Structure formats: C-alpha cells, structure tokens
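User: I'm writing a tutorial on reading structure tokens. Could you give me a worked example: one chain, its sequence, then its tokens, then a sentence or two explaining what the tokens reveal?
Assistant: Sure. Here is the example chain.
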Amino acid sequence: MKMGKENNDLITIIEKLKKEGNGKGVQQALALTGETFSCVRMAMYEYHVYQDTFERKYEWSAGKLPFDKTLNETLKKEIFANKKDILEKNLLSKIMGDSIDKKALEEHVFYHYVIETRGQVHGVIILEREKAFSKVELQEVALIIYMISEEYITEKDTEELKVQNNFLQTLYSKMQTGLVQCVMEENAMQMIWANEAAFQIYGCTREWYEQVYGKSMERFIYVEDWPYVKQQLENMQVGEEIKEYEHRYISYFGQMRWLHVNALKLVNENQEEVIQLIFSDITHSKQLENDLEHEKERYRIAIDSSSDVIFEYDLLNDEYVSYGSFIDNSLPRSTPILTSSYKKKLLKGKICDSDMISRYVDFLSGDDMKPFELRERYKEGDCEGHIWVAIEGTPIYDNGMLIKIIGKKSNINEKKQKEKKELEVVQRDRLTKLYTRTVGEELIRQYLEEKSREEIGSFLLIDLDNFQVINDTYGYTFGDAILEEVAEVIKAATRQNDISVRYGGDEFLILMKNTEPGRTVVYGKRIHEKICGLYAGEDENIKVSCSVGMVSTEMTQEYETLFQYADGMLAYVKNHGKNDAVCYSPSSKAVIEMQGTAYVNANEGPVEEVPTGKDNEDIVAFAFSILEKTKDMRSAINLLLGKVGRMLRLNKISIIETDANFLSNIITYEWIAKKEYHDSICKYNLSQEELEQWKSCFDGEGLFVMTDEWREKFSDGVTLEGNAPRKRNQLYSAIYEEGEFKGAVVFEHSDPLDVWPRDVRTKLKEVSKIISTHITKANADIASKAKTEFLSRMSHEIRTPMNAIVGMTSIAQSVVGDEKKVSECLAKIDTSTQYLLSLINDILDMSRIESGSMSVCQEAFDLDKLVSEIVVLMSPQAENKDINLVVKRSYTDLHLIGDELRLNQVLINIIGNALKFTPERGSITIAVQQLMQEDDAATIRFSVDDTGIGINENNLERIFTAFEQAESNTARRFGGTGLGLAISSNLVKLMGGKLDVRSQEGVGSEFFFTLQFPLAQTEEKEADQTVESGEKEEIHFENCRLLVVEDNDLNAEIAQTVLDMVGIKTERAEDGKQAVDIFQKKESGYFDAILMDIRMPVMDGLEATKCIRTSGKEDSRKIPIIAMTANAFDKDMKKSIDCGMNGHLSKPIDINKLYKVLQETLHVNE
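And here are its predicted structure tokens:
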C-alpha cells in the first residue's frame, strides 16, 4: 500500500518510539496521529475485565476538550454487542447507534478500533473527526492505529511482567516454604540458590551456612536417609521430571526433624538445567500421624472393651441386629442378636414407652437422625424391665435410597437416676432430706385441691422445745445431727406418699394422706415419743423434747386454715408446759391430749414402724464435721456412734483403749442398739504375750474380723444374767498413736456368715481413724490444759519458799554474832529448800506428759537425689491414670542441710493429692527452682501444678485445717481423711516456710512453698557406745578415798566437805579429762569410788566413764562410779547407767541420800 511521505514519516517515528520503550510511546503516537490526520480528538480506553468497565488511559485533543461522559458509560454496549463481527474484521469502524450523543454524531464522525489478542479485549482507541476518512485515509490510519495498539500491548506486557517478577521475588523471600535450586555433582548436592525460608527451616543464617558448608547440602540430611534422597535426585537426572518424597534432616540445633520435598527439573535464567526443591518442615505432622496411629490403636482397644451396644437396622427387611447386651455381659461382642419385624413391634409398644415411639420411628426412617435418649424395654430370659439408653446413628444410602441405619446405644441409666436425684436434691432440705418449705407447701396445696372430699388426711406441726440450748451447749453441728435424727424419726413413722417438710429451723410439717383422726393421734404419739427419746449429749439436764399440734383435713380443704388450726394446737401445748402432742377433733370441736392412753379407733390396726436406713449418706464427712466443731467431744462421739450404728443396722459399737504399760483394756465409749447386746467384747487384763498377739491380729489396713478362735482367747465371756453367749460378727479397726497400738473400734452385727463389704470396711476404717485422732487430740488438750494450770499454780508456789530463803539468808547475814538466831534462820532455809526441791521435782514430773510437739532435723542431703526418688515413687501412679508427670529442675546447689524426711513427706503428700484429684490424661508439673543463693545458703521454691478438679475459692482456707476438705463429699468420692494438707502445712511452717495454693475450680491447682537451706560442707556421724559394769568390790568408809569430778568450785567444795564430815578422804578433778588422767596415774585400788559430774568442759562425765571403764587397769571395771547431775529425767538416769555408772544422784545433792548410795555402793556396814 502506497502512503504519502508525511504518513511514512509518522510510521518511522512510531517505530522509533517502540524501540526506545520509554513508556510514553502510546501517548505520543496518539498525539502525532491526531495532528497528522486532522482529528479533533483521540483517546485510548483500557478495559478492566473484572469490573466490566472502560477507563480512559491516554487522550489527545486539539481543543483540550474531554470526551462526552456518555461515551465512557455506553462504549462497551457498542463493542460487545458486535464483538464477534468486530474481532473478525479487526477494522477501524464507525461508531453508530446509542454509543454517541445524537447531536455529536450530527456534528462529527467517530471511529473506534478494538485492541485484542486471541479474542480477549484489552481496550479501544476512539477517533473524532469533523468529516469521514476517505477510503485511502481509512487504510492508512488503520495501519497506524494497529501499530499504536501493538505498542500498547507491548507496554502492558512489560509492565505486567515487571509486576509479576517483583511479586515472585517478594513471594520467594517471604514464603514459609523452603525453595532451593541445586545440581548433583559427584555424589553431592550443590546449592545454586535458596530463599530465606530454607535457612529458617534449617535453623541457621545464610551467612553461617555458607561459611560452614559452602554450597554442600547433603551434610544436613540425616545419614541414614541420604542414600534414599540421592537415589531420588539421580532418577530425575536420567528422565523423571517431578519427584515427591520425605526425609529426615538434622537442624542447626542438632534435632532430628522431617521434610516434605517436591522436586522438579527446570532451566534457570542462565539456561542451566537444575533441580528445584520446594520443601516444608512436617515434623509436627509426623508427630500427629504417630499420635493418630496410637489413638487408632487405643480406639480399637476401647471399642473391644466398650460397654456400648452396636446395632444395624435393615429398612427393607425390617430387621434389627445388635452386638452386645446391657443385661447379659457374658455374651460375646461378636455374637449378633436378631430381632425380626422390629418396627412392627416398636409400633405395638414392645420396644419402648408409648410416648417415645414416634421419635424412634423418625430415627429409624432417617427423618430425624439427631441423637436422642430412649427408655427402652428389655426382656432377656427371665429378666425384664426398662433401661435408659442414648442413641446415635448414621444413615447408609444406595443410589440415593436409604437402606440401613448403623449406630450405637449407650447405657445412661445411672445418669438418669442421678438427674432424678439431683432434681430431688433441689426440692429437699440439704440437712434433713425432707421437702423444703416452699416445695412442701406447694405439694400440700396441690394434694388438697386434687383429693376427693371423701379422702381424709392429717396435718401435723412439730416444734423442738429446747433446741437452742442444745446448740449453745454442744455446738451447731451437734444440733444439726439432732435435726437429722428427728427427720429419720419422721421418715420412719410416715409412708412414702406422705409429705414431710422441714418448715423452719427446728419446725417440721407433715401431711399424712388417707389417715383417719384416730390413727393421726397414734402417729403423733409415736413421733413424739421417738423424738423425746433421742440422745441429747452427756449433760443430764438437757433432753430433747418437742411439741406437736395436729388437725384432720376433714374440717377443710384450705391449706391456710389447716395450718392455723395446727399452729393453734402447737400454741396450746406451749402454753401448757410444752413437751406434749395434741390433736383438734372437728367432730367434737375439742382438743385430744396425748397424756395417758391415746384415742384409737378399734377398727384400725396397729401402726407398723417403717425401718430407716441412709445407706448413701456420707458418714465420714459427718464424722469430720461433728468432731471438729463440737463443744463436747464425749457427747459428739456418742452421737456419732449411734448414727453409724443405725445407718449400718449394727448391734453395737465399742471403743477399746489399750494401756500397754498396765497391760489392760478399757471400754471408753459404747453404743448399744438393744439391751441384750450389752455383754463383754474383750479381755480387760492381758499378759504381755496376749497383748502382742492382740496387736498382731490386724492386717496392713489396721482391720481384723474376730473369729471364734480369737474370741475365746480375748473375751472374758461375760454376758447379762440369764443370757446365753450370742453369735456375732465383729470388725475391729485398730487405733494407733504415732505408730503405737492404742486399742480398737469394734463394730458388731448379728449375722456370723455375713462378710463386711469392701466399701463398708473402708468407710468404717476412716471413721475409726477420725474418732481416734480426735480422742487423742482431746486427751492431749486435757493434758495440756492441766499442765498449763499446774505451771501457773507452781509459779506462785515456787515464789513462796524462795521468798523465805532470800529473807532468812539476809537475816542470818545481819546477825552473824547471834548463834541461836543464825541457827533458826538456817533451819528455816533448810525447810524452805526442801519444799522448793519437792516443787521442782513435781514440775519435772509434768515433763513426762506427752505434748505432741514435733521438731525437724538438720542433716545433709542431696536435693537432686530426693527429687529423683520422689519421681520414681510417684510415676507408677501417674502412668496408671495416663497422667503426664513433668519435672522441672532449676538449681545448682545439690547438697543442702535440712530435714530430708519431712521435705519428702510434704512433697509426696502434695503430689499424691494432685494424682488423686487429676483426671485421666491430665498433667502434673513438679517444679524445683533455686530463687537465690548466698555464700552459705540457698533459697528453693517447690511447686506442684495440676490440671485437676480445682478448688472453689471459698474453700481455699479450709483445706489447710485439720479434718477439713474442700467439699463434704470429697472423702466419699476420692478417699482419704483430710489430714494430709494440714500436716504438710505444719511441717512447712516448722521448716521456716508457708504452704500456699492458687486454684481455679474445674481448671486445676498449684501448691507451692519456699524454704531456705544452709549449704552442706561436711557430714559427721556420731555413735554411742556402752559398756557393762563389772564386779563390785566390797569396801568400807574407814580409810575410804573418793575422786570428786566437778567443774564448779562451789559444788566441789560442798561435796568434799560433806564427805570429809564422815571421814572420807577426797581428791578433785575439774573435768573428765583430768579425772581419767588421775585415775590412770594412781595404782589400782587407790580410789574406792568416783563421784562424776555429767556436764563438764573438755570431757563430759559419760565420756570420762567410758574411758575409765576401757582403760585396762585392774580396777577399771570394778570401781564404783556415781553420777552427779542437775538433769533429773528418767532418760538421763538411764544414760548414766547404760554408760557404766553404778548410781545416779540429782542436784541439789541430798546428803543423806548421798551417804545411803555410798553405803550401798561400797557395801559399808554389811
């Protein structure tokens, strides 16, 4: 095609613009083209596919005027309406139709050229001219417009490529997946390029890697996996394009981890064939896979041992097949049980209760597959009844049609019973288990409204007369126990459908259904007598009494009216002296009093007493509460024994205390159900052999069931007059105090063949332990009180003779010349001294009273060894419950000085509690952390953190109190006595710290304490050695010579003077070392005896005696050695005798006693 010179120049310019690629070619080309072809305006619109709109990108206008806005809005209609035709011709076309305003079309001519590649529209170029192009001009301008569109597409591709490259570079640097390009060279992997994520996965920096390994990659691969990885890469070199594999590698930190690798061959920018590795760390996924496999195995085992019933229901054949049975546990799980015509039986009410049939049908039809609960009927052999099950299932389809339901049934019978009980708990009083006032009144009103007028009931209102006195005397826990006993009386005297209500603090309301007035009187009398016969403690002036007001429902159906009449009868009793029961008779409109013979209708039979029993009550928690909070221990124990006896229907409970010193038994507490059970249960006087046999009867739990053989040995055989020996079954629970046998609690019932169930044995053992602990505590309190009172009294008594001694001494000093007066003063001083000495001896005797105090030792121990031994001890318990036991150690000083035994006891107590209260698959963390270290001491923090049941914040303080637990039912659910934390808390206090706790209910608890320990330097061991005294040599006072060993000059002077007074010659040694030296230097027989002080410097008397006895001299074993010491305890005397001394004199020395001991020791005047 021939073009003018001007147009050829334009083409040349446009070609030049394309080569320069300066990004402005399209804009300049539009301007040149518009000017060359005399256009009014030219513009290029860029098409955005996702927004489906055109946006003006380049524009040239001769008059600097914008295009009409309507063109921008409607342009796409013109193009895409004729898209196929336009793209096929790809010509510069006139714009027609509605795309341009009509007025603009009349004035100018518009052309457009669609920019496209492979059918995809990129934009459009618009030309506006005052007149149309000629045919030649149209061809020329079309060529130039084509060149401009090519330039636009080139610019756009370049820009997109640049953006894409920038994006890829950013992606490679930011992505978490490792990206490496490498080649295989001589059995080695050489890295060409890698992103930052690759080095992050390896666990090192790029710089470190290149410095240590250079370009080598195989060093990071686990040595056992390298042959496999190498084979994969070599396979790619000979043909395979893509590989996917996994291998282990060693991280920078030396950890073995897993990689998942995608490898592909590609040619890089240098036209080199490389292998690109895209990899990620899958260590966590591998661990999850491993855990999943273990979980699958556990699941399989769980299914094999599951108590659920698996079932299949065939809809087409109406057949139900179950695997397993809730009733017959002996049936193998693999045995199918077929039920034909299942849905037919269901619709007839043979499968479940009628109100649940519709829901079960919907489930079996696939209309409602949500899990639900069903009360299912069962009949297996002679056994039939109902059982609650939870049902869930999955529908199975075949070509869109439901053919089968597969599911499982879980036994939720216990859950439903528990829900029923929980609902009942809400409605009933927590203490007495009777209805609460609100619930009871509503039930009574409902009964009165619904009952027929012919049905007659009785309304009883009961009030305890002196209940506040009982509370004030014995404590509120004791009072609560009385209220419980009253409730038991009411339950025993009423029937199951009667309504019994705890109306107020000590008031009770009863509505007895179907009860004639005469029978009401009998019931009222029975209840009154039983309540008044309840045990009310040891104070004889306090008795349980009650007032009862009664009325019949025949007079009215209104609750308020009945209550008003009953309350009036109660007021009548109160106003006439209390402790009585009266009934209002509607027929006679009179009060029937209970005194004397009660009114009884002859046509009504006798009232049968309903037996009571509260098998589910937690008697252990009750024992904790009443014995800990009572004001009268003896009354509380008697009440407790009666409660246990009635609850378990026992004949008798006795507490025997054994005195090993006097070889005797004594019954200190006893509850008896009936008079005929009052007979002997033990032998009161024992021999030492019988006592040892008696102690050996008990098993490791401290329990012993009495047999006939043992009964003959230990029973005195005493029975009530006229009674033959009874057959009985007795369980003995041993009482220990600090490991020493102190007696037993004896539980007895009549059936000799009955065994004591395990749960009953455990409960009684706990109750026995609580009782014995509180008896010991009460005895200790009594002894401590007696000791305190005695010391207070002695303080006054000691000052009286001291005043006389001081006064008489002053007087004697002032009248030295008056011999008679001095003699009188000395006599009075001697009298006062003797009295003072007797008081001191009395005070020393008080030291023999057991105080219950505890001390801690200070010995070297290895902390790390202690922690390790505890972990070894507690780990089996943790493994049994699948609990993760974690130990965190953070300390440097392992050897400390402290009480290893007590520290071990505290930690085992706390960890044991954590194991007890942490559910299966929970976690327990034991942390031992050194907080600080000084030159000679270290501060250690111990903590035990668990994911157990946690403790309510209101109970955090209670748990450190003896015999208290966070909840009253904790003992029943988890066992134990509640003493552990109290003991641990006191031990930590003794060691200088405080045991504390942080806890959140349902989340877990952390127990922690901090102690300071001296650092251990050396360890010393001491051992006591004793020798036996030898033959005694007979000597006389005449020509006797004694060695006096005494460090105090005044004491030595006194001893030598009093000896000289009877003609005994003396020599003195000032300490034990001098005594040994003097004795060894003198010839055998030089001294007839030695008076030896115990506490002396250099060498004490015990060590000196040991040296003398082992010196090897002829008389070393024979010479009498007599101790002189200010220590007057039995244990000090025993030490003196054990080390080889012949006698013991307590200071101040009694002269007459000294002479007597010398006479006996030296055999004088025999």
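What the tokens reveal: The first strand starts at residue 41 and ends at 48. Residues 619-717+726-785 form a domain with the Beta-Lactamase fold (CATH 3.30.450.40).
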